[in-house]
Write a structure and sequence with these properties.
- The structure is a single chain.
- The protein has 441 residues and is mostly helical.
- It has a domain at 257-424.
- Helix content is 68%, strand content 2%.
- The chain contains 18 helices and four strands.
- The strands form two sheets. The protein has a two-stranded parallel ribbon.
- It is found in: Cell membrane.
- GO terms for molecular function: hexosyltransferase activity; pentosyltransferase activity.
- Keywords: Cell membrane, Glycosyltransferase, Membrane, Transferase, Transmembrane, Transmembrane helix.
Amino acid sequence: MINIATAPLELNSRRFYLGLALALGLHLFLISLPIAFWVDMNLYKAWSIDMVQQGFANFYNYSTNCDYPPTYLYVLWVIGKIYQFFDPSFSHTDGLLLTILIKIPPVFADIASAFLIAQILKAHTSVDKAYTMGLIYAFNPLMLFVSAVWGQVDGIMTLLMLWAFYLIQQNYVVRAGLLIAVMVIVKPQGLFFAPFLVLSQWFRQTWWKWGAIIAGGLVAIWLIILPFYGVGSIAVVSIINPFLSLYKLLRATADYYSFASVNAFNFWGWANWIRDYTTFGGFSYKVIGLSLLGILLGWLAIFLYQQRHHQAQFAGQCLALSTMLFGFFMLPTRMHERYMLYGLAFLAIAIALIPAVKWLYWGLTLTGAVNVGYAYLRYNYEDLFYAIPEIWLQSVVYITSAVNVTLFALMLFHTFRMFRQQSQQSQQSLLSVPLTSEGSR
């Protein structure tokens, strides 16, 4: 007879959706509080209002401080239109309503991401475990803070990455490629996902699919950015002008943040806010960081190619993608504190198949909370921040950066260990095949 008091609680669909509803309720409670990262929130408010008042074609000429590509500006335009219904003259934008409206998209993105994690996992593990991982992500305190308290939109990028991963698993590679193209002009960090598509699929897909991704991606980007860049005062549309204007925007943004680290506690944490053209051994920090990233991508290319016929290839892909996304945060220069978030969703998936990585998931949640909290305190509560002894603050930066380097090394260790184990299994399989001779035929 089963002891109900000690039996594990199995999650069915009803309990899962109840859990998502509770997570959504917690998010909505947090966005109802008058708190946010006001540097970002005030920019979002200004861009939302400018989109309504200035229109698409004149937006970048008027909002010269906007460093976002056009795609998310459509969302801010919709938010501005909704808000205008309640405040036609935009005279009360410092109130709570506009702040809540701006926070709603990333909040719903977090819940949708939790749902998608469960859907992805259902094909590879038990329904109970799939639902559990979805809820673990839905209640992740770091994601809660960034979306519902800070008000940043990294949760939307995470959702898009999960969607692209789901499409790849369903073999909808062209659709995934088109989505990745759109991701890049939501935020440039969408580019972090692109190598995974190439490295995991180049040996599986025919040439015409890659051609369709390139051509379709360029068309999709052109159509999205056209209203912002393509129509001039004489209404003449240039095919190349939108791409050139987008390139100038992205280049200007990258040059503006030309530091080894922008509050990111990573490999370059010790060089926070030091220009990345500073040299070491004759090479700039930027070149060193990109070289390290190139080495990582080379290793993951080998790892993913080995996985192509293995039964555990899905687990290997989750681990490789988590490592790649965290590597983009750890190794190159110019990274911000929140860019480590993207890999957490895929680590949550990997936990269901590789239980040992749960320590990486919670470790990165903790260090990410410290990193994000440091930036939040620095810009939201400057007087309190600068009242703290500098040696304490520097200790937080150095220690957390060192822990992140250690966690990244452990993540790489898991890829090496899986590679070795599967190589040994392949060799044993070859040795177990009986040899045939001419005489035995």
